[in-house]
UniProtKB/TrEMBL annotation:
The chain crosses the membrane at residues 34-53, 68-89, 149-171. Its main location: membrane. Pfam families: PycTM (PF18967). This is Pycsar effector protein domain-containing protein. One of its GO terms (biological process) is defense response to virus. It is found in: Cell membrane. Keywords: Antiviral defense, Cell membrane, Membrane, Nucleotide-binding, Transmembrane, Transmembrane helix. It comes from Streptomyces caeruleatus. Residues 16-167 form the Pycsar effector protein domain. InterPro entries: PycTM_dom.
Amino acid sequence: MNRAVTSPDDPGAQVAARLLTELRGEITRADSKATVLVGALGISAGVLAALLTSRHWTPARLPGPAALLWWAGVFSLVIALFALLLAVLPRYGRSRWTPGRPLTYFGDIRRAAQVGRLTAALTDTGRDPVRALLLALTETSAIASRKHFWIRTGLIAFGNAAVLLPGSMLLA
């Protein structure tokens, strides 16, 4: 039997609140992972560039197939950097708040204040806290999913670069 979650004391609301807390923690961990990976990517690219430029080397010296691998590796590094930066980019977007809808994050509060409805919005949210909780849970889950997508994309691209760049040197 499906029954609606209507009270903050309802076990479903308590689970939703716990999940929201866990999702916020997961977003923090994802941001930390992506930040560390951006640093590792920067160090790797910097060391590679320093080694190659100190020897007056250019990719123009590579034969055709090796040059293709080299540029594919460089492209993969660029993709990895952008993907990891997108992972740490704040995901606030436009507030979807309209009068009668509960406040779920600071963008909603700001929007309600701009239109002079903050007090009414707080009252509406207090009247139906579970709806606000469920909306926040939905939005936060989407943010966590997008962050993990970009981290995976960045890791795959970084892994490709880690294989392609040295591989191009082996073919040279």
